[in-house]
Amino acid sequence: MRAPVHGQGPGSVSPGPDLSVARPVWDHDVVHVGRKAAVQAVQELIESHASSRRALRENELALKRALTRVERGEDVASAITSGTPADSRKSLNDALAHLEQKRRTVRLMVFAMALDSGMSVGDLGKAWGISRQMAARYAKEARSVG
């Protein structure tokens, strides 16, 4: 049961969080470091977006070159093997995997910071457009990582 709120009658229940299980308050320096790390993580995410766009564009151009060769009458097999499809595929897959890893890192950092500032799991789910259950999984992971 929650403690009575100051200024209310006996037996009144606080509408706020149960302070007996509240998280410790971080000092200013720790919060500042957390924000700096979050800013750095977002900058890395932005760089990963750019890298993924380059890999997508390179793959698109390789496909267009192969398609042009086929349209000019070249057989598909030689049009495909004239490029380096294995290298293109690996480069694109690596860029997208890196992007997903950076997205995950930022998502967990944002969840941890939002939870620490008092945002509910339900509100996080609404903000991110995901179910409350998925938000709860992210929150659990963010708490275990942080």
Report a brief summary of the structure.
This protein has helices at residues 28-71, 76-81, 85-116, 121-128, 132-145.
Description:
This protein is mainly α. The chain has a domain of 47 residues. It has five helices and no strands. Helix 1 packs antiparallel against helix 3. The longest helix has 44 residues. The radius of gyration is 25 Å and the shape is elongated. The N terminus is likely disordered.
Share of residues in helices: over 70%
- Span from first to last CA? 28 Å
Strand content: under 5%
- Series of H and E elements: HHHHH
Give the class from helix and strand content and strand pairing: mainly alpha
Segments where pLDDT lies below 50 for 5+ residues?
Answer: 1-31
Our Rg estimate from Cα atoms comes to 25 Å
Q: Please, how many helices?
A: 5
- Largest β sheet strand count, sense and barrel closure: none
* Beta strands, count: 0
Q: What is the overall pLDDT average?
A: 81
- From the spread of the alpha carbons, the general shape counts as elongated
Helix-strand blueprint:
Blueprint: H1 28-71, H2 76-81, H3 85-116, H4 121-128, H5 132-145
Helix pairs in contact: 1-3, 3-5, 4-5
